[in-house]
Amino acid sequence: MSKQKVFSLPVRVYFQDTDAGGVVYHASYVNFMERARTEWLRTHGYSNAGLMKEFGVIFVVRTLKLDYFKPALLDDLLNVTAQIKDIGRSRLALLQSVLRGDELLTEGEIHLVCVSLEGFKPVSVPEVLRKQWKV
Amino acid sequence: MSKQKVFSLPVRVYFQDTDAGGVVYHASYVNFMERARTEWLRTHGYSNAGLMKEFGVIFVVRTLKLDYFKPALLDDLLNVTAQIKDIGRSRLALLQSVLRGDELLTEGEIHLVCVSLEGFKPVSVPEVLRKQWKV
Amino acid sequence: MSKQKVFSLPVRVYFQDTDAGGVVYHASYVNFMERARTEWLRTHGYSNAGLMKEFGVIFVVRTLKLDYFKPALLDDLLNVTAQIKDIGRSRLALLQSVLRGDELLTEGEIHLVCVSLEGFKPVSVPEVLRKQWKV
Amino acid sequence: MSKQKVFSLPVRVYFQDTDAGGVVYHASYVNFMERARTEWLRTHGYSNAGLMKEFGVIFVVRTLKLDYFKPALLDDLLNVTAQIKDIGRSRLALLQSVLRGDELLTEGEIHLVCVSLEGFKPVSVPEVLRKQWKV
Predict the structure, then answer these.
(1) Which terminus of chain B faces fewer neighbouring Cβ atoms within 10 Å, N or C?
(2) Per-residue pLDDT tens for D18-46?
């Protein structure tokens, strides 16, 4: 049973995130989710630059699955969440969502792989993170 | 049985598409695929602006599923494909891929919905396109 | 003599903002500055969506001038400022900068024009904003 | 007197380049110009990756100056130009413009500096390029 908390990052929508359809561009949600994952990682003590320097590793996206329910609009203040679904030796599955108040706008499942900076080969998730992430 | 051809768009990788990991940023492939879908649509006689003007409709992304196999690199010349998988009354499923020569780098399945410009409600795909897209 | 305060917005650097050169991509600073201008506008009581709805106007960029002194890096926490330099009937000149602590990384001067949503013709800056912005 | 030719790259406008104002987002022109500069460089025999590998150098943006005259729209087919204005030991000044047919939409002057990949210190522009670029 998971005791992992849901992390949430407030994200404001600017013109740069929207398109001529008058709503947020579909790839912008992918960006919002990267921001939330990075801040979630930081709550566990590590930045991306820190992971590279200390362990010579980096998390790369292996699969991305997004469901778009309702569009976000210019000037919206969104909440973008991140939560562990599953963890393997070198793999990490996250559930992420984009909310406007109680409304669920977008839902995502992102699978990451921990790879070596040299050669991009899968390596074990650093133990200091695995310990915190055991679901 | 499908007689739909695979459409392919050459896409060059610039600094703007890459990130500090030294490879193409994962959301950039989503952009590449939008470019290929749009040019594929154009081969069927319509631009996005044209669809809005003539029919008052727009295709929005409903689901996005991407598998990342190998990273693309700065200055790569990629081919980004688009091909119909399935078509419903207002829905359209496309298979897309990003290739470097024979290497498959990324594969995607994108479900689009044809919606009215006013209200973003699902409406029928314009007949002139349905006729061409019957799988 | 100006009594306008310098507004400052904290901005974190993510992979999405960087490029394969290992630093922040030069166009990302333009995005950071849009975010800061928008939040600065909000401190004067208006969102972009609000300006469109209440006055039928929008601020568009007329000129952009950026000086890049030092690169920002992945995971940096930056401060992005906005401050009025000058205001005309329909024009607004802003000074903006990107700082990392005390280090000045990028400096910008951005000239905006207030235009009508229909036709993009220059119109007067709404009085409620002019009153606050008189330098 | 310059015998430098004006290089021109066709660029199509997609949703990803536009914003909720219904036009191309102002930072997208900066991206368009990077694409044209890179292809212009390629006509002189070098890619960015090639410059890094062969000479250990990279061109970074030192100043950016853009004038926006008219907005580009969704589905427009633009021409983005690049042309040398001036060259110094480690500096390169380019004139760039964005055109729709005969209409000048945006004009830019971009100053680049050739820097070492290690340390980002200004170094001489490789001789093989200087010879071609003498104005």
Answers:
(1) N
(2) 999 999 999 999 999 999 999 999 999 99
Q: Which residues of A are catalytic?
A: 19
Taking the whole predicted model, whether its pTM rises above 0.80 is answered as yes
At C41 the three-state DSSP class reads: helix
Domains of chain D, by residue range, sit at 7-133
Give the Cα separation of B66 and D2 in Å (integer): 48
Q: What is the CATH number of domain B7-133?
A: 3.10.129.10
pLDDT tens, position by position, D66-75: 999 999 999 9
Which residues between 71 and 130 in chain B have a beta carbon less than 8 angstroms from any beta carbon of chain D?
73-75
For residue A38, the cross-strand partners are none
Are A80 and A8 in contact by the 8 Å Cβ rule? The answer is yes
ipTM of the complex: 0.95
Q: What angle do CA D74, D78, D80 make, to 5 degrees?
A: 135
Which residue, among A109, A65, A67, A81, has the nearest Cα to A11 in the 3D structure? A81
| Residues B26, A27: C-beta atoms closer than 8 Å | no
Chain B residues whose CB is inside 8 A of the D35 CB are 12, 14, 16
Which two structure tokens, joined as six digits, stand for C102?
Answer: 């005390």
User: Residue A122 has what DSSP assignment?
Assistant: B
